[in-house]
Write a structure and sequence with these properties.
Elements lengths: L26 E5 L4 H16 L8 E6 L5 H15 L6 H8 L2 E5 L6 H16 L5 E5 L6 H11 L12 E6 L6 H14 L5 E4 L6 H11 L13 E9 L8 H4 L3 H19 L8 H13 L1 E3 L3 H4 E7 L1 E3 L2 E3 L17 E8 L8 E7 L6 E8 L19 E7 L3 E9 L7 E9 H4 L7 H11 L8 H20 L4 E4 L6 H8 L9
Parallel strand pairs: 1-2, 1-4, 2-3, 4-5, 5-6, 7-13, 9-18
Antiparallel strand pairs: 7-14, 8-12, 9-12, 10-11, 12-13, 14-15, 15-16, 16-17
Bound molecules: 6-O-phosphono-beta-D-glucopyranose.
Organism: Corynebacterium phoceense
Pfam families: G6PD_C (PF02781), G6PD_N (PF00479)
EC number: 1.1.1.49
């Protein structure tokens, strides 16, 4: 007979890791709160967290910006964002409670507005019980990081009073620099004011359920890991394809391009999770150490004119809609050489991955929106079936479907029913939508909550950011000298050079 379990509150057992933790007393200041990201993602995520009961009772949200807004004006703005973007059902009760803690402070990044802000936060600590625990979300271009951090330091907002266990954290958004050198400078600026342990860099891909599932898939199971290496895997394809164009983002995107926007962060983080060794624990330091190790071993393959590809979308048919090309997009310099498609071949120089190319690609205005990681296996060492019997048999694959149809597919050959022995590719699918009734939280929900909880596993460190740039820099330098990117019609799968990049090794991109 097993001993009876001591009584625990079944709703909230502190030791039960299946239950989400609630953030302790705290508040958040958002800089750049009138921007697109705050409106579409951050404000709805904060409401959803409140609605799920994961924020503390006195949670306080402070917007800081130039507008002459009253508390009511800002509340109306937040409510608009929430009604449009929240994933959970709108509840007047939850909203009323949250709105009590919504405040706006008027000021610009380079004036005495920060003195007002500091004083207001101190008042709110008393009125709302935020415990002097503040997270500062810099939802602004990195050019402003330095000014904002220095202002916070000047007015004494960056560090809590000595001898207390209050905390101050800064949450920053990419782009973390333009190359390795600028990333170093940016890190130095931020770290001069906030110690690394208080810096939370957002890579929203790490907040996605399917991305975290890479760890579960690899390390909680027995069937995958023995094959997860160069003995069995032929190559790896990591794809992040979007069907949208640049829309109103031309200003941000021109001069940045697909590689800096997506490969440097999202795709290299996916590569790190797929290729790393098993961490000794899932504590942040252990996880980050493995990611750093694998990023350090990752290098571009050469020659870059054959192992990389880039393109710019031209007008074309996106489904049934005829869309304009990049050069016609409003606000975009028609002579710009910024790429909207980028692909590269990387190698991970380790015993596990020697000789296995990792192909990464991302692009706008491609055939459809899909992110996936495909591990494509070598052919069986001996094929006992005759040639005519295996014509429809490709290479086996494990495909991690990150989005939008979240799940995992295994592709292998199966006998076609009938009197002949013909083997054809089939798919075995696991779909989140069918397997689970639980809904995946939005990435920003997870990451904002983690930052409030001081749980840093899902945030890249400065070392990871700098290493990612060191992988990409040679490619970007080569492209800077290589003239205009190749055009590809919208709605297709990118430039031809991207197909040639794989064909030279007898490979082909999957058509997801
Ligand atoms: C952002 C990029 O990081 O990710 C955007 O800056 C891109 O260009 C976006 O559109 C895609 O995110 P998601 O979650 O829709 O795949």
């Amino acid at each position: 007979m097993t001993a009876p379990r001591p009584w625990v509150n079944p709703l909230r057992d502190a030791n039960d890791k299946r239950l989400p933790r609630i953030a302790g007393p705290s508040g958040m200041v958002i800089f750049g709160v009138t921007g697109d990201l705050a409106y579409k993602k951050l404000l709805p995520a904060i409401y959803d967290l409140a609605n799920r009961g994961l924020l503390p009772a006195g949670f306080t949200l402070v917007g800081f910006g130039r507008r002459q807004w009253s508390k009511q004006d800002f509340c109306d703005y937040v409510r608009g964002a929430v009604e449009k973007g929240a994933r959970t059902t709108f509840s007047e009760n939850v909203w009323t409670h949250l709105a009590e803690g919504i405040e706006f402070v008027t000021g610009s990044f380079d004036d005495a507005g920060f003195d007002l802000l500091r004083d207001r936060l101190a008042e709110l600590d008393v009125a709302r019980g935020t415990g002097s625990n503040w997270a500062y979300y810099l939802s602004v271009p990195p050019d402003f990081f330095s000014t904002i951090c220095h202002q916070m330091q000047r007015v004494g907002m960056a560090t809590p009073a000595e001898g207390t266990d209050a905390w101050r954290r800064v949450i920053i958004e990419k782009p973390f620099g333009h190359d390795q050198e600028s990333a170093r400078k940016l890190n130095a600026i931020v770290n001069a004011v906030f110690p690394e342990s208080s810096v939370f860099r957002i890579d929203h891909y790490l907040g996605k359920e399917t991305v975290q599932n890479i760890l579960a898939l690899r390390f909680a199971n027995q069937i995958f890991e023995p094959m997860w290496n160069a003995h069995y895997i032929d190559h790896v394809q990591i794809t992040m394809a979007e069907d949208i164009g640049l829309g109103g983002r031309a200003g941000y995107y021109d001069g940045i391009g697909a590689a800096r926007d997506v490969i440097q962060n999202h795709l290299l983080q996916l590569l790190a999770l797929v290729a790393m060794e098993e961490p000794s624990s899932f504590e942040p330091a252990a996880l980050q150490a493995e990611k750093i190790k694998v990023l350090r071993a990752t290098k571009p393959e050469y020659p870059l004119n054959k192992t990389t590809a880039r393109g710019q979308y031209a007008a074309g048919w996106q489904g049934s809609e005829y869309v304009q090309g990049l050069r016609e997009e409003e606000g975009f310099d028609p002579h710009s050489s910024t790429e909207t498609y980028a692909a590269c071949t990387l190698s991970v120089n380790s015993r596990r991955w020697a000789g296995v190319p990792f192909y990464l690609r991302t692009g706008k205005r491609l055939g459809r929106r899909v992110t996936e990681i495909a591990l494509v296996f070598k052919h069986a060492p001996y094929q006992p079936f005759g040639e005519g019997q295996t014509e429809a048999l490709g290479q086996n694959a494990v495909v991690i479907r990150v989005q939008p149809d979240e799940g995992v597919t295994m592709r292998f050959g199966s006998k076609v029913p009938g009197s002949t022995m013909e083997v054809r590719d089939v798919n075995m699918d696991f779909a989140y939508a069918e397997a689970f009734t639980e809904e995946s939280p939005e990435a920003y929900e997870r990451l904002i909550l983690d930052a409030l909880l001081d749980e840093s596993s899902l945030f890249p460190t400065n070392a990871e950011v700098e290493l990612s740039w060191s992988i990409l820099d040679p490619i970007l330098n080569y492209w800077a000298e290589a003239g205009q990117p190749e055009e590809y019609p919208a709605g297709t799968w990118g430039p031809r050079s991207a197909d040639r990049m794989l064909a030279r090794r007898g490979h082909a991109w999957r058509r997801p």
